[in-house]
Amino acid sequence: MLDGRHLTMGIETSCDETAIAILADGREVLSNVISSQIDIHKNFGGVVPEIASRHHLENINGVLDEALAEAKVTIDDIDLIGVAYGPGLVGSLLIGVATAKAISFAKDIPLVGVNHMHGHIAANYIEFKDLEPPFLGLIVSGGHTNIVMVNDYDSCEVLGSTRDDAIGEAYDKVARVIGLGYPGGPKIDELAKKGNKTAINFKRVYLEKGCLDFSFSGTKTGVLNHVNRAKQKGDDINTADIAASFQEAVLEVIVNKAISAAKMLNQDALVVAGGVAANSRLNDMLSERCKEEGIKLYKPSPILCTDNGAMIGCAAYYKMKKGEISDLSLDAYPGLEI
Predict the structure, then answer these.
(1) N or C: which end of the chain has fewer CB within 10 A?
(2) What average pLDDT score do residues 207-233 get?
(3) Start and end residues for every CATH 3.30.420.40 domain found in the chain
């Protein structure tokens, strides 16, 4: 406790960011330190789990010290520790969970395990102080594409999910096919600005009528086939047009399904979360459609879209308020459901 404020430490190590943040009263960010491994993993074309966990181990103490210093607090001021315990890479998750448990035990600080996906949703509570459940959520990230009904701070009902590749995975695979490398999402988003989004009519997959699930594998395969045919014929390959046309195809489906869900459930707000929420074209399309339909759009700043400790700390704070405290048997669950 500091100056009457409840301080939460949020720890996030589910993939390749080592992130720790300090929050006051759940929604005020005092520090939000993120150590990214993108420059390391781009040499391999994607995240290598063993390398990711090794670098988390090397980085986490330094990130912890920096987060405390930036917040101008000490470890003894911390009232609660929140940590992402799944889903994610098991080795990476274990580093965060072990660190949180060690501090909790040594300093007798309450511990709360947080679902990483609930953390992404909680990023919006930090950005928008008036936002409270229930509301309709759209989660778009490297490993997930979900439409959810957020009934409470730690309770979500999944209305639609991906049947194959998540949207972030599809971006990464297409980026590799056209030679952009890793991470695919930001690279395609940037290149697409130079291309013609109507140049190539890639397939839009809507599945069964009224279904809110997603499937991006067919669109991804369409890109691969287009590139292979061009190579066989000796035609020029316009990567900017491919990027723009692919992005338009998959984002059109996401936006249409999210708007359909809002109408079906009579929701007047849509809350977007996850790393792909930082995509500029998705933001433009959602903003336009939500304005047309009279739906209020919530989307956090780019720094809160990516994996970060602040979103975990916020989610932990609200679990604590409901009395949901973890014990030292807390373990990593890489396949944790939303």
Answers:
(1) N
(2) 92
(3) 7-123+305-321, 134-300
Q: At what angle do helices 217-233 and 239-264 cross, to 10 degrees?
A: 160
| Both tokens assigned to 90 | 């098991």
Quote the mean pLDDT of the chain: 93
CATH of 134-300, one of 3.30.565.10, 3.40.50.1010, 1.10.3720.10, 3.30.420.40: 3.30.420.40
Cα gap 301→26, rounded to integer Å: 17
Looking at residue 106, its pLDDT comes to 97
Report pLDDT digits (tens) over 134-173: 999 999 987 889 999 999 998 999 999 999 988 888 899 9
Please give the backbone phi and psi of residue 226, each rounded to the nearest 5 degrees, phi first: -60, -45
pLDDT category of residue 1 using cuts at 50, 70 and 90: low
Cross-strand partners of 226: none
- Check whether domain 7-123+305-321 has CATH 3.40.50.1820, yes or no: no
> DSSP per residue over 85-153, as a string?
EESS-HHHHHHHHHHHHHHHHHHT--EEEEEHHHHHHHHHHHH-TT--SSEEEEEE-SS-EEEEEEEET
Q: CB atoms < 10 A from the CB of 178, how many?
A: 22
Cis peptide before 183 (omega within 30 of 0): yes
d(CA 72, CA 161): 41
